[in-house]
Amino acid sequence: MLTASFGLTGSNNSFNQLYNNALSQQRINIGFSIPVVDWGRSRSQIQTALAGKQLTKYLIELDEIKFEQEIITLVNQLTALKYQTELSRRAAAVAQERFQAAQQRYRNDKLTLTELTQALNEKDAAARSYIDALRNYWAACYDLRRLTLYDFEKQQPLLQAH
Question: I need a surface site. Which of 50, 109, 140, 162 has the fewest CB within 10 A?
Answer without folding.
Answer: 162
